[in-house]
Amino acid sequence: KRMALGTTELNPFLPNTGGYVQADARGEQILINFRSGPTPFKVVTYSAVQSGEVDPALLQNRIVLIGVTAPSVKDSVNTAATSGLNPGLVTGIELQAHAISQIVSAVLDGRPLLRVWPDWLEYVWIVSWGFLGVGLARLKLKPARYFVSLFALGAGVIGLSYGFLLTSWWVPVVPAVAACLLNGVILYPSFRARHELTLRLNERQQLIERTFDQIHNGPLQRLATLLARVSEDPQLPATLHQELRSLNRELRGIYEAMRQEALSTDSCLRLEGNRRIRLEQPLHEMLYEVYEYTLERTEFPYFKTIRFRIRKFEPMADQGLSCDRRRALGRFLEEALCNVGKYAKGCSRLVVTCAQEGSENVIRVVDNGTAAETAQRRTGRGTQQALALAQRLKGQFQRTQQQPKGMCSELRWPIR
User: Fold this and answer.
1) Is 386 exposed, middle or buried (0-12, 13-18, 19+ CB in 10 A)?
2) Which of 43, 160, 230, 371 is most open to solvent, judged by the fewest CB atoms within 10 Å of its CB?
3) CATH, domain 281-416, list 3.30.420.40, 3.30.565.10, 1.10.3880.10, 3.40.50.2000
4) pLDDT tens digit string along 99-155?
5) d(Cα 341, Cα 182) in Å, to the nearest integer?
6) Where are the domains of the chain?
7) 3-state secondary structure 14-31
């Protein structure tokens, strides 16, 4: 039941009223809306009353409370709702004065009593500010502007809560601010990283589209012309027409594979024939799969002459290697093996090492073939990519001629 004086009801204090949690609500209790100011009430001493120094008009039609304010009595409570000579410490008699003043003003003057929302509405209030923090984090704002906006949003929570308090509504402030700021601070890095990833994927896709347009309007058009001429000339070998058609399909397939790889966020390396290798597995296992799949390719003539395959794949220190660098290492091994299949004429022995040597990781491919096109192998696109990869890894790449014949391609980088 609610206490009432006339038509004015006194809102009872409950265990979870406002910011209280499982508080002692036994007896008849209400929230006190403290008077503002350092001296909200007239205070006279007992000695002043005895000596007749107090004007009788001061006491006429007033509620007079008599009590003790001496510190030795230890009749005081702590509160942050008052200001004065000793902020935060209110004597018992002054506390009673605030309570009586509130009740009298509510009944006679209509001064609103402190009110709180029901629990479900408080939860809606807190969750709403949390969603606003999430919504702000999803915006594509630069860090400086974002954090200014976030703290402005937090200040808005405090300002709005203070406005409610001025109208005698006590709403949750700290939970709402915490939900807003924590969601904004914690989620912003992930949303920002996702946004930057999307931008990079779009830029990569545009680059692939432009590159393929140039290939389509140049080499592919000439290739189509060659296909038409070959099909019309019966004197040319039939295998030539098949090889040109296969080349046309491979070039177009490369474009589609690159487009899918640019749009995909999965961690895999795509090889010839749309074979995929997981990049999350240990580095030496990933490189071994590249080794196996590459040597199965049939378009390289000198793979068929290899009689002895000596391989060494041992655990490597791969901590800190990103997916892009793992992918680049797989491409390096694939390129080195393809060079053997293309250029190592008469190769009968292939030695592949992917292991840790001392304080460095090493990927090494050694063949004993005759380097018929050494200059091309040394200065081609694969060499440029290998040198760039070595620079990113702060390592070293070298391709050296073996004696009496053969070639060694080696990439090594320090362990971090």
Assistant:
1) buried
2) 43
3) 3.30.565.10
4) 888 888 878 877 878 888 888 898 999 999 999 999 888 888 888 888 899 999 999
5) 57
6) 3-114, 119-200, 281-416
7) CCCCCCCCCCCCCCCCCC
